[in-house]
Write a structure and sequence with these properties.
The structure is a single chain. The chain is mainly alpha-helical and 518 residues long. The protein has 14 helices and eight strands. The longest helix is centred in the first third of the chain and has 145 residues, at 2-146. The protein is flat and about 170 Å long.
């Protein structure tokens, strides 16, 4: 038993010794490995530091060399400037020395010349004294021979020369005036011919009807509606007479106002395309088309000013220019006429050495007074002048607009140019047709006459002026008053207007009641 214990103890001691030996050996090996790794890492760090130090040294060296080079360049540049200045100073010094020498030489020459001049002056003075003495002697002899003093002879000679000069001057002036008149007429004709040759426009004859084409005659019945309610609603909403006759695949829209005809045409097109045609839909479409036409008017005005190169114009004037598209003057489209006058004015102003841009602006706006519906008692030139002044146009343009029909005094050179170009545009063959203009004016006067009565909301002259429809509010007129109104209008038309045949006056009392089912 004791032996086993001793053997176990010995084994334990031997095992512990062996374990210690192995642990110590492993520890030393790990220590050596750590030392080796630390040395290797130290070498790497050392190399990095050395490399960084070298790079920094190289960078500092490069910066220093660049700095030195820049300094040297500046020094060299300064030396060059100094050398150039020294060279310039030397040149100026040499030039100054040369001029001093020349001045000294010139001074000596001048002294000699001055002495010679003094001698010559003395000789001339002596000769003048002798000449004056001889002149006095001759005058005394002439006075004795003529029996007149020198002053009397001089006065007589002056009067004779004055009369002769006056006669010759008057003849010369008359010749110049006559030549100036001939030249002015020739040059004026040349300017006008050049202006006309450079502008080519189409013959503009406006009609009072528009033909609306349809795919089949079946659509005519839908447009008329039950008992004609659709066509009556369309005529009331647009103020256009709609003529549905036997003409195949066509409906005629008749009205003197091109805006109304265009609204009616577009509304009909949308209604026929959509297929829904009834009074409520007609009113909705007509209101929508009116907004579209207003937008198109503004777009036309903008496009016109851009095409002509005119900028900075008030938006209201631009809108009125666009509205010219739907106005006519003696059958001539007002917008085309105004564009033609603008181009002619610019060309003529260029030929005369004036500002073509101002002339073009004045030419475009010269008939702007024909567009508004209000203030009809004013001549269109004066109304246009007021509009241009209201919207801040320049005074020379305002004067050109107001004086192109001699209703205001011409104060600038632009005014006669615009007047002449307006006459050229209107007087060329085929430009205007007075029959259409007088017809449209008669219809407009007819509508304005009815509108002057209180309670009247709208008036439409239809059937070529043979019928006048007057729309009044039901809350403003009773049935008896409507009857009296139709009589008063008819009586006033008979007394104040000239017209062929007879005119039918129809007064319509309109009342609307609107409610919504929710």
């Amino acid at each position: 038993m004791v032996e086993y214990i001793i053997a176990a103890a010995v084994g334990f001691v031997v095992g512990g010794f062996i374990s210690y030996y192995l642990w110590d050996k492993a520890l030393k090996k790990k220590k050596l490995k750590l030392i080796s790794e630390a040395q290797a890492e130290g070498d790497v760090i050392k190399k990095d530091k050395i490399l960084q130090a070298k790079e920094k040294f190289f960078q500092l060296k490069t910066d220093h060399e660049r700095f030195i080079n820049e300094k040297n360049q500046k020094i060299n540049a300064q030396e060059n400037r100094i050398n150039q200045k020294e060279s310039s100073i030397n040149q100026r010094r040499d030039e100054l020395h040369r001029k001093i020498k020349e001045f000294e030489i010139t001074k000596n020459d001048n002294d000699v010349i001055r002495e010679n001049l003094n001698n010559q002056i003395a000789v001339v003075e002596q000769k003048n004294e002798e000449l004056a003495k001889l002149h006095r002697q001759q005058v005394e002899k002439l006075e004795v021979l003529s029996g007149m003093s020198a002053d009397e002879a001089k006065s007589q000679l002056v009067e004779s020369l004055k009369e002769e000069a006056k006669t010759e001057a008057m003849a010369f002036v008359n010749e110049i005036v006559e030549e100036a008149k001939q030249t002015a007429n020739k040059e004026a004709k040349k300017v006008v011919v050049k202006s006309i040759q450079r502008v080519a426009t189409e013959t503009a004859i406006e009609n009072a009807v528009t033909v609306f084409h349809i795919e089949s005659d079946e659509i005519k019945g839908r447009i008329i509606g039950r008992e004609g309610r659709n066509i009556r609603a369309l005529e009331a909403a647009t103020g256009v007479e709609i003529i549905v006759d036997d003409t195949p695949e066509a409906i005629v829209l008749s009205a003197f106002d091109p805006v109304r005809r265009e609204i009616a045409r577009l509304a009909l097109h949308q209604l026929v395309t959509d297929g829904r045609i009834h009074p409520a839909r007609i009113e909705e479409v007509v209101n929508k088309v009116k907004k579209q036409i207003e937008e198109e008017i503004i777009e036309t005005g903008k496009r016109t000013t851009i095409d002509l190169g005119i900028h900075g114009m008030h938006p209201e004037l631009v809108r009125l220019i666009g509205k010219m598209k739907y106005r006519s003057s003696y059958g001539q489209n007002l917008l085309q006429h105004s564009r033609e006058v603008a181009n002619l004015s610019a060309i003529m102003a260029t030929e005369l050495g004036l500002n073509p841009k101002k002339a073009k602006r004045a030419g475009l706006l010269h008939d702007i007074g024909k567009v508004p519906d209000d203030e009809p008692e004013l001549p269109h030139a004066i109304l246009g002048m007021k509009l241009a002044e209201k919207f801040k146009e320049k005074p020379d343009i305002v004067n050109a607009i107001g004086s192109h029909h001699d209703e205001a005094e011409m104060q600038t050179l632009l005014a006669p140019i615009v007047q002449v170009c307006d006459a050229i545009s209107g007087a060329r063959p085929g430009a205007r047709r007075e029959v259409v203009e007088s017809y449209i004016k008669r219809l407009k006067d007819l509508e304005d006459l009815a509108l002057s009565y209180p309670g009247v909301m709208k008036t439409y002259a239809i059937q070529a002026g043979r019928e006048l429809r007057v729309i009044a509010g039901a809350d403003k007129l009773s049935d008896q008053e409507a009857e009296q109104l139709s009589y008063d209008i008819a009586k006033r038309i008979q007394d104040e207007m000239t017209y062929p045949g007879q005119i039918k006056i129809t007064v319509i009392r309109e009342i609307r009641s609107v409610n919504y089912a929710k």
